[in-house]
Amino acid sequence: MAKKKLGQILIEMRYVTQDEVDSALDIQQQQSENRKVGQILVGMKACDEEQVAKAIAHQCGLKYCQISKFNIPAEVVQLMPRDVAVEHMIFAGSAGC
Known about the structure:
Radius of gyration: 16 Å
Helix content: 40-55%
Shape: elongated
C-alpha cells in the first residue's frame, strides 16, 4: 500500500483545503529550491508547523507528542547514549506520550 501524500493527510485532518494544497504544489513545481509541501503551506499561513508535524507523524504511523509539555531532567536525558538515541530516533520527552 502506498504511503498517503502529506497534503492529502492535512486535508483529511481538516487543517487545509484542497485549493491550498494545489497552490502549494504549484509553488513547489515553480521553485528550484525544492521546498517541501508542508513548508510551503506554513509559509502560506494555510496551517502551522505543529499541524504539519502531526500530519507527518500520522503519515509515518507514529504518535505525535508535543515535548514542550514535558519537563525531563537533564540528568535523565544524559543517561541515553547519543548514538543510541539517534539510531532509534528517541527524543527527550518521548516517555509518557
